[in-house]
Amino acid sequence: MRGACARQGWGGLSTVGRSSGIGVLDKAVGVLRAAAAEPCGLAELCQRTGLPRATAHRLAVGLEAHGLLHRGNDGRWRPGPTLAELAAGGADPLVEAASTVLPRLRDITGESVQLYRRDGIHRVCIAAAEPPSGLRDTVPVGSRLPMTAGSGARVLAAWAEPAVQRAILAEASFSERVLIDVRRRGWAQSVAERAAGVASVSAPVRDQSGQVIAAVSVSGPVERIGRRPGVRWAADLLAAAEAIQHRL
To answer: Could you tell me which residue ranges the HTH iclR-type domain spans (predicted)?
Structure first.
């Protein structure tokens, strides 16, 4: 049949079998089960579920939009953060892992600290720690920022899938060459890119499989942290990112 994959299921994960009587729900669960068994690309997803390519792709992209699936830099889908959040009773495991790390990083640097997660071509601040007084770069939790400026955006864009990178770079303040440098050295810095007078440095946070799932950032006034914040704080950011990964 044109446009369809083999109907043979993989590991008992064919869409034929258990049924709730709600076709699209059964197919979506089949896609989830297939990706949970082992990360897979579209061809493997079709083989495991027996779904046509267009259907498998549509469901996987929809599940990814809700965080139920996550597509890594290798183009393969795997279980997303929302599954872990639901399993934990609504608690976000990434935020929980960062809950003691961010305040310590704030105390070390004396500056504002944020944790960002990518959502499409935006980044969302999911946790933050602010110094008790003084001039600060406050980013409220829940803030949704474009992925076109700032060191946190650079980090998340550097390890995003190629299609997302292309969409970001079309409007970004940085270039593909910058993202190559970010991947090479393992962190990013920016000066007056997201906001006038603000500098920041960020590092990637990875999950246990090595996929970049967030960016941890330190930001503050340029006159205080300088125009090369990475020289001061990159090592501390990398240590904080590793600590968060260890706690996941």
So the answer is: 22-81
Domain contains 163: yes
Is 195 a member of any domain? yes
Q: Could you list the residue range(s) of the whole structural domain that residue 34 is in?
A: 23-87
**Structure tokens that stand for 108 in this block:** 């070390």
Whole-model pTM over 0.70: no
pLDDT in tens, the chain (248 residues): 334 443 344 333 443 446 788 888 889 999 998 888 888 899 999 999 999 999 999 999 888 877 788 777 678 888 877 776 666 555 788 999 999 999 999 999 999 999 999 988 889 999 999 887 666 667 888 888 999 999 999 999 999 999 899 999 999 999 999 999 999 999 999 998 888 889 999 999 999 888 999 999 999 999 888 889 899 899 999 999 999 999 98
Domain CATH for 52:
1.10.10.10
What φ, ψ does residue 175 adopt, rounded to 5°?
-110, 170
Q: State the Cα–Cα distance between residues 122 and 103, nearest whole angstrom.
A: 25
